[in-house]
Amino acid sequence: MVATPRVLVLNGPNLNLLGTRQPEIYGTETLDDIINLLRTQAMMAGWELGALQSNHEGELIDAIHAARLNGTLAIIINPAAYSHTSVALLDALNTFDGKVIEVHLSNIHKREAFRHHSYISQRADGVIAGLGSLGYQAALNAIVATLKSD
């Protein structure tokens, strides 16, 4: 029996406040709205989708370590502010052999200068920024299409 392909969606600090935190930048959809849409999209493609949001760096790192061992083929990660600060997340992602796509709701290159650099981009196979929640959908589409053709 062939296992269902698995993708993990990780979201960093403060993304639990989507829908109410700075809607002019991040939109009005909640993180639950986004994840529910992604679960449906993944199911339609024959994929299993796991999701975790944490305000704690170590919890995100533990999830990446677990993904190395549980058959996860790809990670979609919105590291939020950890993009600009976390060598530890980069190191954890460097231990993961699957695809990694980094997603940002806003265009980090149009924001404050300190947001222009992302440590995570050094590991990411692709980066999507500035498309709002559509960026997550595009990331999942890219993973499904890329891994289907491998």
UniProtKB/TrEMBL annotation:
CDD domains named among the record's database cross-references: DHQase_II
PROSITE patterns: DEHYDROQUINASE_II
Pathway the protein contributes to: Metabolic intermediate biosynthesis; chorismate biosynthesis; chorismate from D-erythrose 4-phosphate and phosphoenolpyruvate: step 3/7
Residues annotated as binding substrate: N78, H84, D91, L105, S106, R115
One Pfam family per UniProt: DHquinase_II
SUPFAM superfamilies, per the entry: Type II 3-dehydroquinate dehydratase
Catalysed transformations (reactions): 3-dehydroquinate = 3-dehydroshikimate + H2O
GO MF terms held by the record: 3-dehydroquinate dehydratase activity
Gene3D superfamilies, per the entry: Dehydroquinase, class II
Site (Transition state stabilizer): R21
Class of this enzyme: lyase
EC number: 4.2.1.10
UniProt entry keywords in alphabetical sequence: Amino-acid biosynthesis, Aromatic amino acid biosynthesis, Lyase
Catalytic residues, chain numbering: Y26 (proton acceptor), H104 (proton donor)
NCBIfam families tied to this protein: aroQ (TIGR01088), PRK05395.1-1 (NF003804), PRK05395.1-2 (NF003805), PRK05395.1-3 (NF003806), PRK05395.1-4 (NF003807)
Family to which this protein belongs: Belongs to the type-II 3-dehydroquinase family.
Function (record text): Catalyzes a trans-dehydration via an enolate intermediate.
Assembly and binders: Homododecamer.
Protein name: 3-dehydroquinate dehydratase
Species whose genome carries this gene: Halomonas colorata
